[in-house]
Each structure stands twice: as structure tokens, then as C-alpha cells.
Amino acid sequence: MKADVLLGLQWGDEGKGKIVDVLTPKYNVIARFQGGPNAGHSLKFGNISHVLHTIPSGIFHEDKINLIGNGVVIDPVVLKKEIDKLTEMGVDVSKNLFISKKAHLILPTHKLIDAASEQAKGKTKIGSTLKGIGPTYMDKTGRNGLRVGDTLQDTFLQQYDKLVQKHKQILSFYNFEYDLEPLQEEWMKSIDFLRQLNLIDSEHAVNKYLNENKSVLAEGAQGTLLDIDFGSYPYVTSSNTITAGACTGLGIAPNKIGEVFGIFKAYCTRVGNGPFPTELLDETGEQIRKAGHEFGATTGRPRRCGWLDLPALKYAIMINGVTQLIMTKADVLGEFDTIKVCTHYEINGEKIDYMPYDLVNVEVKPIYKELPGWKADLTQMHSADELPQALHHYIEYLENELKVPVTIVSVGPDRSQTIIREKSLV
Ligand code: GDP
Ligand code: IMO
Ligand code: MG
User: Fold this and answer.
1) Is 13 tagged catalytic?
2) Contact yes or no for 57/42 (Cβ under 8 A)
3) Which of 221, 279, 281, 275 has its CA nearest to residue 245?
């Protein structure tokens, strides 16, 4: 059996959590492969609205295995809070949540360094979620990090102290005040809690599942345009958010990847700083933000909004080897007379239809095609033939440009507000 991957094609928040939850019944295993509590994946069904940060979005289906892979960075304090909340809701994670011993730990000092570094950058700050992601991945690649499996070793406290000493030195370079004591106390308590969970050799487990013909869905966090290598560097996150990240973040060989579901909003959003060619700083942007409730699921920050960007989307499809597209939030554009799609960028008078090396230091003028709006409330529609003609036209236009079928259209945040366009493919 091959593992399927679902990941974001934009700057995150494309609706990954919702769609993973919708697809979970078709899979045995849902596995997160990168990122950490910078992610906020929202799920909605019945009267439950819930945001997950570290735990895979299959957790509400009790017979499914949920796995946090080696590529993920874990803040045990956040993880404990997430589990406590789920327990209160009657979800028992003791049998179906598994955590890689090779996943790296976010220390309280990683969060402090994240905050100190952002403060020092001033105007050029990344707009990090301040969850300690960058500093933790830096220690991972710098070969100084602490891993979940280390918590089971007698030397754990010494290892912890050694790393914290290093962090204190780093912090002394910044003009940054902090009180580590209370943070450390809570962290250590959460480590005791973490030790009681199912800590496993996840790469062996995932390959065993695949060999036993169990179906695996790898759940991405963030989005392709925030990828450390291919995103709008340096305004990116610190992990590989792309399909290749599912290989390294779970231990799945590239030839064992099956379908790649690329998810995108019918428009674009971005939280934090960095280039955003189609950003709308006007009434229209405000209208999209309002209609789409575009506020961060992790930080509550307003999301920047703009029109769909085809050069960026084509790039993301290429990097990820997307086999199926999923379009979310089509309902949000229900009141517009016309809808714009960026087909090209104009840079220094030159018209291009691909992602250039640099978006940060150049002025990019988006060139738009205008399509008719569908002017309809989609939120109560349940099948593809109910969808308005203008929306079919919009989707067919995109399919034609992107050369990949749109198999799912999401028309609201609830599980039930999901339209399968091509049943044979999903
Ligand atoms: P993720 O990080 O990719 O999982 O996405 P987020 O959960 O951060 O943000 C997506 C937001 O849009 C959440 O509030 C979802 O409940 C909501 N959402 C998802 N799909 C749809 C949709 O098709 N229509 C509308 N209106 N909201 C959606
Ligand atoms: P999900 O999984 C949207 C953004 C931050 C910032 C940049 C770096 O919910 O789609 P970091 O804390 O990773 O160092 O921040 O990346 N960012 C996200 N934006 N959705 C996310 O996750 C994000 N995770 C990080 O806003 O610009
Ligand atoms: Mg999110």
C-alpha cells in the first residue's frame, strides 16, 4: 500500500484540518509529518468546533490510528493541554495516539529565543507564531536538540541543562527579559505526562502499516509557500511543508507515496509578514476577511486576504506532484459580481507566469483575469449538480490552467459541507 499526502498549496490555513477529518473514514492511519504548535487545524461537526495544533486531525474517529511523526516538533505543554481538552470532550487518546521517539522537543527557552529574535528584527520580523518553531529546528539541524525518546533516558536532565545553558548564552546577546522558572516548572510536569503516552519507533510502525495494507494519510501543516526551501524565504517556517517532507518526516520512501491532495482556498490568505503579490489592502480584502472569518486559528491575528494566484499555485503543484486538487471556502466568494484570478506577474516591465527567485525585494504587479461570480449561497448545497454554473466555470478554468482535477469542493466549515466532484478519484 502507498501513503497518500494532504498538504496546503498556499500560505497555510487552506482548510487541511477540515478535509483530513472528512477523509479520515477512508484511512486507517492519519500521520502529521512536520511543523508543530504553529499549526491550527480547525474541525467542525455537529455542534463541535475544535482546533488541533499538534495532534492529527483524525483524532475524533476513535478506531483510527493517529501518529505524530519524527518531523514534528512538540511542545509538551501544548500537547498536554490539547490532550486534556480532548479527554474533557470524551475522546480517549490512550489507544489511538502514537508519538515518534525521534520527534524533537520545544523547550521553554526555544520560545524565548523565538520571541527575542523577532523583537530584535523589528520591522523585518517574520511574524512568527512565537511557538519556538525556528529555534527548535535550528537545534535539530545543529545537532543539539532533545528528542521525545531522550525523556526515557537517565541522562535526560543533564541533556536538558546543557541545552538550556547554551540557550541562556544566546539570550544574553539580546536585550530581552525573561523569567524561565515558572515556564520550566510547567514544562517538566508536561514531560512527566508525555512519558506516559505511546512513544514509538514511528518509521517502523508506518512501514509496517503500509506492508499490512493499512491506508495512511499524511497530514501537512503550514503550506508550500511557507516551505523552508521553496517558500518566500526568509518569510517562511522552518520545515519542509511539501510532499518530500512527508518522506523525511515519517520515514516513508518516495516510491511509497500515492495520491497527493493539494488543498487551496478559492482565494488567498497569509498571516505574518512577507510577500503576497495578490494581497488586497482595500474594501474587497476586508470583505473577504469578514465573509471568510479570516483570523488565525493559533494566534487570532487577522489574516491578509487577496485573489487566487496561479503562478504560485502552479509552482506549488509542481513541487508537490499534486494528483488531486481540493478547493475550499468557495462559499466565501458568494457575494461578488466578478472574481479575479492572477494569471501572470509583471516584474520590471516583464510579464511572467512562473514563480521568480525573489518576491521579497522586487515589485510584483499581478495581472488578472476576471471571471463571473456565482452570486449564490453554497453552504446548503450537497452535490456537484447543485453548484451554480459560474462556479463550475471557475473550477473548469482552474483545472484547465493547472492541469490537475479538482475532486473536492468545500462550501462551509462543517464536515457535511463538502462536495465530492469526482467520486472515482477520491
Ligand atoms: P488549516 O490550518 O489548513 O487546517 O486551516 P484553519 O483551520 O487554520 O483555517 C481554515 C478556516 O476555514 C477554519 O476556520 C475552518 O473552519 C474554515 N473552513 C474550512 N473549510 C471551509 C469552507 O469551505 N468554507 C468556509 N466558510 N470555512 C471553511
Ligand atoms: P497551519 O498548519 C498559517 C506562519 C507564521 C509566520 C511564519 C513563520 O494552520 O496552516 P513560525 O511560527 O512557523 O516560525 O512562523 O509562518 N505560519 C502559519 N501561517 N498557517 C500555519 O499553520 C502557520 N504556521 C506558521 O504566521 O508568518
Ligand atoms: Mg491553520
Assistant:
1) yes
2) no
3) 221
